[in-house]
# Entry
Amino acid sequence: MRFIVLTLFPNMFEAFVNTSIIKRTIEKDICSIEVIDIRKFTKDKHNRVDFPPFGGGRGMILSCQPLAAAIDFSIEKLKSKSKKDVDIIYLSPRGKVLNYNLCKDIASSDKNYILICGHYEGIDERIIEEYNVTEISIGDYVLTGGELASQVLLDSVIRLLPGALTEGSLDEESHTNNLLEYPQYTKPVEFRGRKVPDILLSGHHKKISEYRKNESIRITKKYRPDFFNNK
Ligand code: ADE
# Structure
């Protein structure tokens, strides 16, 4: 799966693409992430990319010209490398909220993606219409820009791509089967007087599995009772 990220702050992605699992998935050619600076596409003589909103209001709006040029360039680049469809996502607090199912839909989509990171007060609405852009939010709060949001999206999608994690790692994690993950313990058996539950040391796989299921239900009821209401 190929991703092109359009941003005014490409340096925010340096650590992200060069660390841990994301770095490895890129090295293994499971995905590619190209980060492109929107400012390089501006035709403004002062190198500007943003202007005040028509109608008044605070902040600046990322204007059509540099963004459209960056998108056109990215579509062409992706199409020259693969026949897959290209979807364009704009990370925005007004978008559809990202969750595990949406991550799975993207990971299994057999498409390539352009991710637009806004800054300032947003992007010109005509870009969203012109390119049939899907808006995705990572939660009901407002960030100063879409860079962290796009990294959240990339991270949560890429780990679901086949081969990204060792087989079986996804089977019992939080959000699979609408349950949160059960508590985990490792060495030592006792820490500051707190012992690992005996059942986990028993070697009795069936009982361990029942215990973990019950713990998952307990924790889900505590933190996300809405998971049960939705059924
Ligand atoms: N940009 C600013 N806030 C955001 C959010 N909550 N999700 C995605 N992109 C954003």
About this structure: Residues 93 and 117 are 11 Å apart (CA to CA). The mean pLDDT is 96. Residues 91-93, 137-139, 141-143, 146, 149 surround adenine (CB under 6 Å).
